[in-house]
Amino acid sequence: MHTDGSGLHVVLTGAPGCGKGTQARILKERAHICHLSTGEMLRAEAQKDTPLGRDLKAALDRGEFATDEMIIEMVSNRIDLDDCQNGFILDGFPRTLPQAQALEKILVQKGIKLDRVIEIQVPDEIIMERILGRYSCMQCGQGYHDKFLKPKVYGVCDVCGGTTFARRRDDNRATVQNRLVNYRMLTYPTIPYFEKEGLLSCVDGTGTIESTAAKIALVLGLAQKR
Ligand SMILES: [Zn+2]
Questions:
Q1: Class of domain 8-123+188-219 (CATH, top level)
Q2: pTM (2 decimals)?
Q3: Which end of the chain is more exposed for a tag (fewer CB within 10 A), N or C?
């Protein structure tokens, strides 16, 4: 485990649908650092036969959210693993102000410096258009979009040739609206908090995936990949 403050440690934040998962995967390749998605960590942790794993599984089985304490413990353990030696991107964490404050404490304890918190800014109407338009191939899971990512041949999956597609049931206007309201209430307070710490950079996320990725690379001082 490194304790010399080296490596690149980044939080990607922004409203649900702003593209932070996609950007985290691109940044992971570009910077050779670990992508820590809260959703994936939760699914992995809940399968472990540990006190935390059992608590998480019980909460998720009851349809409840994991508590801040559970999430913080999970992230803290995950950061200690070898693949985070070069650094990490946190995607979906911190989701609340208490989580943000806990993250700061954890990192101080571990001797890790948080380099940057990047907020990907996308107006609500654009998020709505992105989410309501998306669908995927039922056979291979390849994702598409009514407007931005159509299959090359209408009605036929580029990847597997499948012809049946589905939309996620929670990709509807009311649910998305609800997620956006939750984001404003729960997660948004972390933005001025990180700003006060001098860690915040805002990036316009309304352009293409590539242009947003380039802006993030610029903020982090990473050389453009050719
Ligand atoms: Zn397919």
A1: alpha beta
A2: 0.86
A3: C
Arithmetic mean of pLDDT, 188-193? 97
For residues 177 and 125, is the Cβ–Cβ distance under 8 A? no
143 C-alpha to ligand 1 centroid (Å): 8
43 catalytically annotated = no
Q: How far is the CA of 209 from the centre of ligand 1 (A)?
A: 22
Distance CA 166, CA 86 (A): 38
In the residue annotation, 226 being an active-site residue is answered as no
Q: What is the DSSP string of 30-51?
A: HHT-EEEEHHHHHHHHTTS-SH
Which residue bears the tokens 């001098």?
Answer: 198
Tokens of 43: 């699914």
Using the mean position of ligand 1's atoms as its centre, give its distance from the Cα of residue 137 in Å.
Answer: 5
d(CA 27, CA 210): 11
Terminal Cα-to-Cα distance of the chain (whole angstroms): 32
- The domain segmentation of the chain, as residue ranges, is 8-123+188-219
Q: What is the pLDDT of residues 41-90, one digit of tens each?
A: 999 999 999 999 999 999 989 988 889 999 999 999 999 999 999 999 99
pLDDT digits (tens, 9 = 90+) for 169-186: 989 999 999 999 999 999
Spell out the residues 6+ positions from residue 189 whose beta carbon is closer than 8 angstroms to its own: 96, 97
184 annotated active-site? no
107, two tokens: 């990192």
